[in-house]
Design brief:
By secondary structure, the chain is of the alpha+beta class. It is built from nine helices and four strands, in the order αααααβββααβαα. Strand 2 and strand 3 form a beta hairpin. Helix 5 runs antiparallel to helix 9 and helix 8 crosses helix 9. The chain is globular. The two termini are 25 Å apart.
C-alpha cells in the first residue's frame, strides 16, 4: 500500500519533464462551470465531479465494494482497478473520447484526418489498425499514425519504478506501442506516434511534442496565442479522461 501511494504521488508530480495540466480545479465555483460545459465528453455530473475530486486527492472511492463486472475483484481505495478494468465498456469509451477530441482539434487546424485506419492495407492483409487517428502531411510530407493508450502508474509490473519517478508507465507503453506498430507503419509510409497518458494525467513525451506541434498550427488557424491553445488542448483531453475515470468508478460500485 505504501508503494501504491508513492506511485500515486508521482503521477501528479509530472510537471517536471512531462505535461501536467490538471483538469479538476479545487474551487467549487469552477467545478460547477465544468459541470455545465457541453463540449465533447466534458460535462461532469455532480456525482462524477465529487468522485473525481476524491480520487484525485487520494481519498477512498471504493465504498468497500467489489467490482460490479468482476465479482472476484475488490475495488481498491486508489482506484487502479476501476480505472483500467476492461469489462463494461468504460475503457473503450474513454479511448474513443480521447481519440475524437484529438481528431476534432486536428480538424480545427485544417488537417486531413481519418479514424481507425490500417486494417487490410498491406499485402498480407494484416487486420491490425495502428492509427486511431491518421493525420495526412503531418511531418516532412508523411502521414502520422496516432495511437492512444491510457495506462496506470499503479500497474503491478512497474509499480516499484513508478513510485520513484513520474512518467515510467507512459514511457513503457510508448515502447510497447512502437514494438507493435512500427513495422506496419514503415511499410505503409507512416510515422508511428503513440499518444500515451497515465491515469493521473501525466502525458508521455511523444504526446507532449505532438500537442506542441498541433498547438502551433491551431494558434495560426484560430488566431490565438499558442499558450492559450496548448492549455485548451490539454484541458479538453484531461477533462475527458477524468470524467471517464470517475464514471468507471461509479458504475463498478455495487449498491449495498
Amino acid at each position: 500500500m505504501i508503494i501504491n501511494f508513492r506511485a500515486y504521488l508521482t503521477g501528479p508530480q509530472s510537471l517536471i519533464g512531462h505535461a501536467y495540466y490538471p483538469s479538476l480545479p479545487l474551487i467549487p465555483l469552477l467545478g460547477f462551470r465544468l459541470c455545465h460545459q457541453k463540449t465533447l465528453g466534458s460535462n461532469f455530473e455532480p456525482n462524477q465531479y465529487s468522485v473525481a475530486l476524491k480520487w484525485w486527492l487520494g481519498l477512498d472511492t471504493s465504498c468497500g465494494s467489489s467490482c460490479a463486472f468482476c465479482p472476484d475483484s475488490i475495488l481498491d481505495p486508489l482506484g487502479p482497478h476501476a480505472s483500467t478494468c476492461k469489462r463494461g465498456g468504460d475503457a473503450v469509451h474513454r479511448h474513443n473520447l480521447l481519440r475524437d477530441v484529438f481528431a476534432d482539434s486536428c480538424r480545427l487546424a485544417h488537417l486531413l484526418v481519418k479514424l481507425e485506419v490500417g486494417n487490410n492495407l498491406t499485402p498480407d492483409h494484416d487486420h491490425s489498425r495502428p492509427a486511431d487517428v491518421l493525420v495526412h502531411n503531418w511531418s516532412l510530407g508523411k502521414p502520422a499514425a496516432f495511437d492512444f493508450c491510457v495506462t496506470s502508474p499503479l500497474n503491478s509490473l512497474i509499480l516499484s519504478e513508478a513510485g520513484v519517478s513520474s512518467g515510467v508507465a507512459a514511457q513503457a507503453s510508448e515502447i510497447r506501442k512502437h514494438n507493435s506498430n512500427d513495422a506496419k507503419c514503415v511499410e505503409l509510409g507512416w510515422v508511428c506516434i503513440p499518444l500515451v497518458v497515465e491515469t493521473y494525467e501525466a502525458w508521455g513525451q511523444e504526446a507532449v511534442k505532438t500537442f506542441a506541434q498541433l498547438a502551433s498550427r491551431l494558434a495560426i488557424a484560430c488566431s490565438k496565442p499558442k499558450s492559450v491553445v496548448i492549455n485548451e488542448i490539454y484541458g479538453r483531453l484531461n477533462t475527458c479522461l477524468m470524467r471517464s475515470i470517475s464514471s468507471a468508478i461509479l458504475t463498478r460500485i455495487v449498491p449495498s
